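agent> Task received from the user: take the single chain below, predict its 3D structure, and emit structure tokens. No templates, no multimer pairing.
agent> Plan: (1) validate residues, (2) run structure prediction, (3) serialize to tokens, (4) report one or two observations.
agent> Step 1 OK, no nonstandard residues flagged.
tool_call: predict_structure(input=
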Amino acid sequence: MNTVKMNIAEILELIRDDLAAHHPKTVLLFGSAARYMQKLQKEKPKDFDVFYVASFTPVLSKSLPVKVDLHAYKEYEIIRIARSLRYSPRFLSRAKMYMQDTWHATLRSDIAACLLLGPAYQDYGFLQMENEETFRDYSIHEVIFGKTWWRSLQAWTQDYRGPKGLFFDKVLANDQFKPDFS
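)
tool_result: status=success, residues=182
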């Protein structure tokens, strides 16, 4: 089994079924596979970048027909990033993430921030990786599991409140993310 013989929807179903057994809050597809699905890229993806949020990191099945790069986050990690984007001054939020990513030699916080903010990530000073062939916009994604939770977290993050908003939200005990399942 390989990507030539399977379509993207079948592969996503296998990935979703494999990860759903671990009870994630959300599972997103981003990177070249998401760009391909949204017809922003012509060539089929060579791998699948998967953003996964749950209480623990899963073990992927060895029988998946494609290379899957799993970007696993604990729920508290992604909410901490969302909270920083919502309440910290933008330059400070960006600096915190830059220091964290530099310390760990990853782009974890940047990827999470771009997915959370959507196209508005550029307003925060996030830069995307480019090469001669592609522009890698990490805000482009497909939700393959946990759409309601994810959209709720995105909306909460994108409602920028700043430090003054944090003060008033704390007074009203409304400064923590609470998913909206309505």
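agent> Step 4: summary for the user.
The CA atoms of residues 24 and 54 lie 4 Å apart.
agent> Done.
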